[in-house]
Amino acid sequence: MATQVTATATTTAAANAQRSFSFLRFAIGLQTLTIFVQAVSAGLLLTSSYGETLHGVGARVMYAAAMLYVLAAVLAWKPGGGSARPVRHASGFLVLASVQVVLGIAHVPAVHLPLGVLMFGLSVLALARR
């Protein structure tokens, strides 16, 4: 009886951990996609009248995706008590996203554009590691 309860608890814990990591992978994928869309809308910003609106809306969506990444990392870490490294990565990425928003509002493209490229690369790397 005790073996059966232990086996059931282990199976349930493994299923919960798998769901948490799936949600984390989804959040990183969404973040990566939104950053890519931001690169496309930056090109539209230079060539069309609606590019500025699209880039502004995309910035808000990208920031929300970065916050979702932090939430997913915390949810993946907390129940299993594993490494807090994904939470640190997600929090660092949220800081980069905050700096990116401030630089965009301040119209500092000399730093805003390279930071966007760096963020896209880091997001792809995080996605590949999950």
Quick structural gist:
By secondary structure, the protein is mostly helical.
| Poorly predicted tracts of residues | none
Q: Roughly how many Å apart are the termini? A: 36 Å
Shape category:
elongated
**Mean residue pLDDT:** 88
* Strand residues, percent: under 5%
H/E series, N to C?
A: HHHH
Question: What class, by secondary structure content?
Answer: mainly alpha
- Tell me the total number of β-strands: 0
Task: Please tell me how large the radius of gyration is.
Answer: 18 Å
Helix content: over 70%
Largest sheet: none
Description:
The protein has 130 residues and is mainly α. It is 88% helix and 0% strand. The protein contains four helices and no strands. It has helices at residues 2-47, 51-77, 85-105, 109-129. Helix 1 runs antiparallel to helix 2 and helix 2 (51-77) runs antiparallel to helix 3 (85-105). The mean pLDDT is 88.
List the helices and strands and how they pair.
Blueprint: H1 2-47, H2 51-77, H3 85-105, H4 109-129
Helix pairs in contact: 1-2, 1-4, 2-3, 3-4
List keywords for this structure.
mainly alpha, single chain, 130 residues, 4 helices
